[in-house]
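[#protein-structures] MJ: dropping UPF0102 protein HOP59_05705 here for a structure pass
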Amino acid sequence: MASSTDARARGARVERLGAEWLAGRGLKLIASNQQFKGGELDLVMSDGETLVFVEVRHRADTRHGHPLETVTRAKQRRLVHAARFYLARNRLSCPCRFDVLAVTGTPPLLDFEWVQGAFEAF
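AK: finished. C-alpha coordinates for UPF0102 protein HOP59_05705:
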Protein backbone atom coordinates (compact mmCIF):
# COMPACT_ATOMS: atom_id res chain seq x y z
CA MET A 1 0.00 0.00 0.00
CA ALA A 2 1.33 3.44 -0.96
CA SER A 3 1.84 6.00 1.78
CA SER A 4 0.05 9.33 1.84
CA THR A 5 3.43 10.99 1.19
CA ASP A 6 3.74 9.00 -2.05
CA ALA A 7 0.18 9.96 -3.00
CA ARG A 8 0.88 13.64 -2.29
CA ALA A 9 4.07 13.56 -4.38
CA ARG A 10 2.23 11.81 -7.22
CA GLY A 11 -0.59 14.37 -7.01
CA ALA A 12 1.86 17.28 -7.05
CA ARG A 13 3.60 15.79 -10.10
CA VAL A 14 0.30 15.34 -11.97
CA GLU A 15 -0.72 18.92 -11.07
CA ARG A 16 2.64 20.24 -12.35
CA LEU A 17 2.29 18.27 -15.60
CA GLY A 18 -1.30 19.49 -15.91
CA ALA A 19 -0.18 23.11 -15.47
CA GLU A 20 2.44 22.62 -18.19
CA TRP A 21 -0.17 21.04 -20.49
CA LEU A 22 -2.56 23.96 -19.93
CA ALA A 23 0.28 26.48 -20.43
CA GLY A 24 0.84 24.88 -23.82
CA ARG A 25 -2.77 25.78 -24.60
CA GLY A 26 -2.41 29.44 -23.68
CA LEU A 27 -3.05 29.63 -19.94
CA LYS A 28 -0.52 31.22 -17.60
CA LEU A 29 0.20 29.76 -14.17
CA ILE A 30 -0.26 32.25 -11.34
CA ALA A 31 -0.28 29.97 -8.27
CA SER A 32 -0.60 26.34 -7.29
CA ASN A 33 -1.63 24.43 -4.20
CA GLN A 34 -3.34 27.34 -2.45
CA GLN A 35 -4.54 26.13 0.97
CA PHE A 36 -7.50 27.67 2.78
CA LYS A 37 -9.54 26.66 5.77
CA GLY A 38 -12.04 24.20 4.33
CA GLY A 39 -10.53 24.01 0.86
CA GLU A 40 -7.66 23.99 -1.57
CA LEU A 41 -7.11 25.35 -5.06
CA ASP A 42 -4.94 23.11 -7.23
CA LEU A 43 -4.06 25.65 -9.92
CA VAL A 44 -4.80 29.34 -10.34
CA MET A 45 -4.17 30.39 -13.92
CA SER A 46 -5.03 33.26 -16.22
CA ASP A 47 -6.72 33.02 -19.58
CA GLY A 48 -6.37 36.55 -20.90
CA GLU A 49 -8.25 38.76 -18.43
CA THR A 50 -10.03 35.81 -16.82
CA LEU A 51 -8.77 34.20 -13.61
CA VAL A 52 -9.17 30.44 -13.91
CA PHE A 53 -9.42 28.12 -10.91
CA VAL A 54 -8.44 24.65 -12.14
CA GLU A 55 -9.31 21.50 -10.22
CA VAL A 56 -7.00 18.67 -11.29
CA ARG A 57 -8.46 15.19 -10.85
CA HIS A 58 -6.35 12.10 -11.55
CA ARG A 59 -7.09 8.42 -11.91
CA ALA A 60 -4.64 5.80 -13.12
CA ASP A 61 -7.53 4.21 -15.04
CA THR A 62 -11.30 4.52 -15.31
CA ARG A 63 -12.26 1.13 -13.85
CA HIS A 64 -13.78 2.88 -10.85
CA GLY A 65 -15.13 5.85 -12.76
CA HIS A 66 -13.84 8.82 -14.69
CA PRO A 67 -11.98 11.58 -12.82
CA LEU A 68 -14.65 14.10 -13.86
CA GLU A 69 -17.21 12.15 -11.81
CA THR A 70 -15.29 12.98 -8.63
CA VAL A 71 -16.10 16.70 -8.80
CA THR A 72 -19.29 16.46 -6.78
CA ARG A 73 -21.60 19.31 -5.83
CA ALA A 74 -19.97 19.35 -2.35
CA LYS A 75 -16.51 19.57 -3.96
CA GLN A 76 -17.73 22.42 -6.15
CA ARG A 77 -18.97 24.29 -3.06
CA ARG A 78 -15.54 23.89 -1.39
CA LEU A 79 -13.79 25.16 -4.54
CA VAL A 80 -16.07 28.20 -4.79
CA HIS A 81 -15.46 28.91 -1.09
CA ALA A 82 -11.67 28.64 -1.54
CA ALA A 83 -11.82 30.84 -4.66
CA ARG A 84 -13.68 33.54 -2.73
CA PHE A 85 -10.97 33.45 -0.04
CA TYR A 86 -8.28 33.69 -2.73
CA LEU A 87 -9.95 36.68 -4.37
CA ALA A 88 -10.44 38.46 -1.04
CA ARG A 89 -6.91 37.76 0.21
CA ASN A 90 -5.43 39.09 -3.03
CA ARG A 91 -7.93 41.96 -3.31
CA LEU A 92 -8.95 40.87 -6.79
CA SER A 93 -12.08 41.70 -8.71
CA CYS A 94 -12.03 40.16 -12.16
CA PRO A 95 -13.89 37.67 -14.35
CA CYS A 96 -13.41 34.13 -13.02
CA ARG A 97 -13.98 30.63 -14.32
CA PHE A 98 -13.90 27.15 -12.81
CA ASP A 99 -12.27 24.50 -15.00
CA VAL A 100 -11.62 20.83 -14.36
CA LEU A 101 -8.63 19.00 -15.80
CA ALA A 102 -9.28 15.26 -15.75
CA VAL A 103 -6.07 13.25 -16.02
CA THR A 104 -5.94 9.52 -16.64
CA GLY A 105 -2.93 7.24 -16.91
CA THR A 106 0.43 7.17 -15.19
CA PRO A 107 3.30 9.55 -15.98
CA PRO A 108 4.64 9.98 -18.54
CA LEU A 109 1.67 8.43 -20.39
CA LEU A 110 -1.14 10.77 -19.41
CA ASP A 111 -4.38 11.67 -21.12
CA PHE A 112 -5.80 15.13 -20.40
CA GLU A 113 -9.43 16.16 -20.69
CA TRP A 114 -10.00 19.86 -20.07
CA VAL A 115 -13.50 21.08 -19.25
CA GLN A 116 -13.64 24.86 -19.37
CA GLY A 117 -16.40 26.46 -17.31
CA ALA A 118 -17.14 23.10 -15.70
CA PHE A 119 -19.48 24.72 -13.18
CA GLU A 120 -20.61 28.13 -12.00
CA ALA A 121 -20.17 29.80 -8.61
CA PHE A 122 -23.43 29.65 -6.64
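MJ: nice. Residues 4-23 form the longest helix (20 residues).
AK: one more thing. The chain has a mean pLDDT of 94.
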